[in-house]
Amino acid sequence: MDVWHLCLERLEAELPAEDVHTWLKPLQSSARNGAMVLFAPNAFVVEHVRERYLGRIRELLAHFAGHEAVSLEVGSLPRAAVAAPAVDASARPAAAPAAEAFNGNLDSHYTFENFVEGRSNQLGRAAAMQAALNPGERGHNPLLLYGGTGLGKTHLMFAAGNLMRSNNPGTRVMYLRSEQFFSAMMKALQEKAMDGFKRHFQQVDALLIDDIQFFAGKDRTQEEFFHTFNALFDGKQQIILTCDRYPREVDGLEPRLKSRLAWGLSVAIEPPDFETRAQIVLSKAAERGVVIPEDVAFLLAKKMRSNVRDLEGALNTLTARANFTGRAITTDFAQETLRDLLRAQQHSIGIPNIQKTVADYFGLQMKDMLSKRRTRSLARPRQMAMALTKELTEHSLPEIGDAFGGRDHTTVLHACRQIRTLMETDGKMREDWEKLIRKLSE
Ligand SMILES: Nc1ncnc2c1ncn2[C@@H]1O[C@H](COP(=O)(O)OP(=O)(O)OP(=O)(O)O)[C@@H](O)[C@H]1O
């Protein structure tokens, strides 16, 4: 057990269960320069933990680790810090290794039942379901889910693994982050135990590897992965991978690996639309046993567009504060609690950022966004940028007009309407819009 879990165990014995659950369990620990770093989902949790529990955490740390160095930060665990699975170098290719030896990393919480389906993830969900129901079949092997951060790729991957396991409890499903594959390989190399490493990975029925963009530039890891991949593919074992973008766009991934990835099925997971976001909020709240009015769910869905992880973070902040203060969750309460969070989001989006992102996307210059020239190649992107500003920020039409070279507010209104209408019929336009929303919300 690591030091943080030792501390947590002690805190669990000392504090009310609800406090531990709300404030301490969500913390993730890592080590940096000999100190413990605790990552909290948001600033509110950081402040609360600092005020109430940090002193005691320091004492426990001194007791268990012989030092008191601990810092609190907003964020999540650097992926490399997640412990790599132990690869038993002496593992023999026994006929049927116990499934438990492989399934440890699979988080059983994430299922298809608690995944909210929407237009943005429908295909990905269907593909993951197919891979789970008919593992190893050519049409979806490998299955690659790609898209921006926090959009549910890992959730779907777990859901597929869990379904395979529940349909057939003996199934050996191994889930690993790419860094864990890398660490396990480095360890095997140091211990001259590569044979055991290879055997270990090849004994699974399904191998799930998360965030393969991490393999970029790591030639030896790619080489080993390539061999593992081939062996599994030939053995009709299911491979499911995720990547933060389409693998062909990842610099530093070997061409032969890229081409292997294209053998099966690659599906993009897009950012969820407004309705799906609202549905996710309601579903996550219900999971936590919290009743949240629909208008609050709509408010969160409207304001938190960047990714589902942030949306969930906002919901957690809200419910934690409601618990803490004993107040009901109303829209006023939500506005108040989330003010800073929302301000930070909007600030990071900002009009110049939108103008620059849209200009870059269409290969234009920033000055084209402000100029009076009305050629179509400039006017459409400019209209798109104005409509995005209306969608993503709280600026009024006159403010937007001013920021786009002193245009009248009716021009902005016209741009918003025009873009909406065009998106109904023009698939390319809709795709551009969604890509830009994604870029701006990252
Ligand atoms: N459609 C959805 N329904 C329910 N929960 C969702 C949905 N999409 C995302 N989530 C939740 O959002 C959180 C982040 O999702 P997940 O970790 O799967 O993202 P990811 O795409 O793998 O991100 P990353 O690339 O950063 O690893 C999880 O708690 C997940 O349950």
Task: List the main descriptive attributes of the protein structure presented here.
442 residues; alpha/beta; GMP Synthetase, Chain A, domain 3; Rossmann fold; Helicase, Ruva Protein, domain 3; 4 domains; five-stranded parallel β-sheet; three-stranded mixed β-sheet; 21 helices; 8 strands; globular; binds adenosine-5'-triphosphate; DNA-binding; ATP-binding; Chromosomal replication initiator protein DnaA; DNA replication; Chromosome_initiator_DnaA-like
Work out the number of β strands.
8
How many domains in all? 4
Mean pLDDT: 86
The percent range for strand residues is: 5-15%
Task: Characterize the largest beta sheet: strand count, sense, and whether it forms a barrel.
Answer: 5 strands, parallel
**Helix share of residues?**
55-70%
CATH superfamily of the largest domain: P-loop containing nucleotide triphosphate hydrolases
CATH topology of the largest domain: Rossmann fold
Describe this structure in words.
There is one protein chain. By secondary structure, the protein is α/β, with parallel strands linked by helices. It folds into 4 domains: 3-78, GMP Synthetase, Chain A, domain 3 (2-Layer Sandwich); 100-268, 3-Layer(aba) Sandwich (Rossmann fold), CATH 3.40.50; 274-348, Orthogonal Bundle (Helicase, Ruva Protein, domain 3), CATH 1.10.8.60; 351-441, DnaA protein, C-terminal DNA-binding domain (Chromosomal Replication Initiator Protein Dnaa, Chain: A, Orthogonal Bundle), CATH 1.10.1750.10. Helices cover 57% and strands 9% of the residues. The chain contains 21 helices and 8 strands. The strands form 2 sheets. It has a 5-stranded parallel beta sheet with strand order 5-6-7-4-8, sandwiched between helices. A hairpin with a 2-residue loop joins strand 1 and strand 2 (35-40). Helix 12 packs across helix 13 (294-303) and helix 20 (409-425) packs across helix 21 (427-441). The longest helix is centred in the last third of the chain and has 19 residues, at 331-349. The two termini are 35 Å apart. The site of adenosine-5'-triphosphate has 18 residues, from helix 7 and helix 14.
